[in-house]
Fold this sequence. Notes:
Blueprint: E1 9-12, H1 15-25, E2 29-34, E3 42-47, E4 50-56, E5 76-80, H2 84-93, E6 102-104, E7 107-113, E8 119-125, H3 134-137
Parallel strand pairs: 1-4, 5-8
Antiparallel strand pairs: 2-3, 3-4, 6-7, 7-8
Amino acid sequence: MNVRQAVPFFSVSNMEESIRFYVDGLGCQIEQKWEPEGKLRWCWLSLDGAALMLQEFPTEGHDSWKPDGKAGEGVTICFLCSDALQFYREVAARGIEAAEPFVGNRMWVTSLTDPDGYRLDFESDTEVPEGTRLGEVSG
């Protein structure tokens, strides 16, 4: 096989805010980074076996970019987990707002939205009936 991995590359409006969300909130690790003139502009993040890249583009001058709306509007990335409910509890304990998990397509699903509007779904297989919400099974 030649193709080994797909890594989402997110344009972000504020790298510091994104780092707080992804590193402090979700538990990602910074694996690689680019810091021209001492400012973090690009990084490769990992979360267990998944990865994504973030880059803050300048809003003026060379290589500038300014989205018309939120950069991530309409984009969803699905992360397959061993236990999406455990992930939900961990990020909620860190103060990250995540949707109450529900069962869809035979998977527990919890969704989060990052500061730029990218939707992140964390999912894991289950035998629980379709449409069930976490509050219905955990009291």
